[in-house]
Request: fold
Amino acid sequence: MYDKAIEQLLKEQAQREAETIRTESKAKLSHKERQENKHTREEQYRNERLEHKKQWLRTEIQSRDERSDAIAEYIQADIKMGEVVFGVLKNYLNFVDPSNTDTNKSRWEISPFWQKFLGNIEELKLTTEKIQNTIKRIKNWIIKQVAPSLALLSMDKNLKVNLEELVEIILFAKNRLKKRHYALLQAT
Reply:
């Protein structure tokens, strides 16, 4: 692809060159003026070639909720946007070259193109501390999430669920408690 672009540039340059020579010969320019025009055209040609040599790669990451907050915190900590993007990419994405001797992909060598792309950048993690469950959080969850369903059960004329049945459900659920539930009780 790059070779075709250069080839196209050379073709366009030759066409412009021929057109300029025709124009200059009609205009009867002096030798000095023709040389100045030639230098100007060569400079334009060099600039066009340099523009084609500069390649760039669009890179995006998308995050939501806590992870987008983590990105915002990195930026607030005066880490440049590019460093954040590359650091996150380095942490979460790797391109590796297969090994003939090792089947464990985590030990495969990172591909040279990926190392070159990321450069010498530090990994950045977007993980946040896990929110610990507490009795208060569980109570709030029941009020927000479970209570509407309980209200619906109490309103259903066919089921006729009453307070006594709800208490029975709670007592039955005590048999299903696990060690982690008892640990929450001891933590309060």
About this structure: The first strand starts at residue 96 and ends at 97.
